[in-house]
Amino acid sequence: MKDFNPAPETASIVSVTDRVTKVALGAPATAVHFLGDVAAFIGAEESVTLATGGETNVAAVHAGGILCSASDGKRVVVGGDDGKLTSIDARASVETLATDAKRRWIDNVALHADGAVAWSAGKTAFVRAPKGEEKSLDVPSTVGGLAFAPKGVRLAVAHYNGVTLWFPNMGAKPEFLEWKGSHLGVTFSADNRFLVTTMHESALHGWRLADSRHMRMTGYPARVRSMSWSAGGKFLATSGSDSVILWPFASKDGPMGKEPLMLAPLQAKATVVACNPREEVFAVGYSDGTILMVRIEDGAEILVRRNAGEPVAALAWNARGSLLAFAAEDGDAGLLTL
Amino acid sequence: MSEAAANKIPVTVLTGYLGAGKTTLLNRILSENHGKKYAVIVNEFGEIGIDNDLIVGADEEVFEMNNGCVCCTVRGDLVRIIDGLMKRKGKFDAIILETTGLADPAPVAQTFFVDEDVREKTALDAVVTVADAKWLSDRLKDAPEAKNQIAFADVIVLNKTDLVTKPELAEVEARIRAINPYATLHRTERAQVKLSDVLERGAFDLDRILEIEPEFLEDGGHDHDHDDDHDHHGHDHHHDHGHSHGGMKHYHDEDMQSLSLRTDKPIDPTKFMPWLQELVAKDGEKILRSKGILSFKGDDDRYVFQGVHMMLEGDHQRKWKKDEARESRLVFIGRELPEQAIRDGFAKTIA
């Protein structure tokens, strides 16, 4: 990545901090999802807080730590260190979907638009179709991440030395995309052409699915923990650096041979990114507590939260892109209406 | 480092060959009334007789790092587990990690050196190796894992001493010392060791690298609380076998040794640093652990370093005290160490 000159500290940055509604969580948060216009803040332990404006409703979902969560907009599914997979909807109705027989940690979860849910415990990935039939697949090492392909029922299972692509409804042998190292997060591009993983090293790895061609995306000073596709899928925005790194995916070769965009540089590490689902705009949270909204086209920035407090842990937009929810590691949280 | 270390969760690595008594010690740690809560990472569920919702099963997945260094391995599962445990920050004071009997402690230790997230949240406290007094001598002959675990240890709990005669005990101790003269050694029956002797040792805390002496020459850091009968204590614990043998038996282990270097002449840091880095880059696979206190020319601060295989960390520690001899000391524990090359290389770094 090229060097850049940090933007001068200006008092004139447009700020919407006064339009943020505070949400009192009272406990650390690790993620947030929207169920319609209700924000579901995932606690580090035990509970999910549903927030509408400043009103909150706390629901217990686990007996211990919450390790993972995913949402399809209708429900949030959470996995815990109590070996349970539970779901919660906007009316705070909680349902236990699965209990691991050995009480292993539920490390990862993914949801399919058709209602299928996937989760993993240790080396085993599970899939359950909406009608309830459960299938499992063992991979060579502990599952690092799960993602459903946008089309068909196809599950990407990230693990050590690569990603296994599994069609749970077909008898065919799963496909294996190999790349040395430990793969943690995994995501498909919306057009189903590319698959990208975050690695244990400070790097991303990608494959063009048509021909399994490799794409190396390196140069990060820290591990990439957050990635988000821009509206329309032209860019993949990522954390892990002192600016937001956006890899271009519009052309048929994806980011191969291209420089990424680097926007919103700060003297802090970007910890979480979330792209607006309607506009080419993303929100980014930093290790110093700052939250910005940034327009991809020209890099224009709007301040959502000042650089105070704990690192930003969670960001999410509602489906219409009109609400932004955020939470810092210590549970300081808010909602912004645009 | 101390200030930062104070906020980090200490992690004690409990290792030892099959049947040595790891689980007995672990159950004791968990059941004793110490007012502390431990999160425990175990390889086998079900062996722990204590009800604790902070027990996690591990898979001991050893990963190579993509940095071209073959011995640079980490425990991938540990990275994930520590991340998960930190969700319950505040619910426990420390972490105990039990390895399988066949595990090499190096990938565990290296995880604490290389993984940014693990480093940020936790600090490796010590590698505690439980050894079976009756069978260790045999295992040192036929099980390289057992030898690694002894060589790597900061604390050795020599267990089941009631099952051996005094000469047998002296024999096994001498074999341990041939491999690792620096670890603190405790003789126990049914793993009855004071918990303060195995927990919160700060063995990997650079600020606590004070002296580097073979443990059997001094009277171990664990004796602070009974200085009054220092001589008597030392006599009982370290020299009783000496009467019959006219001194501790000396063994030379065929492939695992320790090497200690010292000089009272100041060291040139511009020569020392490149030499040390090159040494571990070249021979890091053989060097299990390294440690040093250095007196650099024209520098009033002590410089300390420690390493595991090819990984090193070092820092200025504190000012040399007025009454303190400004002596540089280095220790290497490893397999087939190129002793003469190390000695010659070190000699050339003298200012």
Describe the protein.
- The complex is a heterodimer of chains A (338) and B (351).
- With 338 residues, chain A is mainly β.
- Helix content of chain A is 0%, strand content 54%.
- Chain A has no helices and 30 strands.
- Chain A has a seven-stranded antiparallel beta sheet, with no helix packed on it. In chain A, strands 14-15-16-17-18-19 form a six-stranded antiparallel beta sheet, with no helix packed on it.
- The radius of gyration of chain A is 19 Å and the shape is globular.
- The two termini of chain A are 33 Å apart.
- The mean pLDDT of chain A is 93.
- In chain B, helix 6 (136-142) crosses helix 7 (144-152).
- Chain B is 32% helix and 25% strand.
- Chain B is globular and about 60 Å long.
- Chain B is α/β, with parallel strands linked by helices and 351 residues long.
- In chain B, the strands form three sheets. A seven-stranded parallel beta sheet of chain B has the order 3-2-6-1-7-8-9, with helices on both faces. A five-stranded antiparallel beta sheet of chain B has the order 10-14-11-12-13, sandwiched between helices.
- In chain B, a hairpin with a 2-residue loop joins strand 12 (301-308) and strand 13 (311-319).
- The interface between A and B is medium-sized, with 29 and 25 residues.
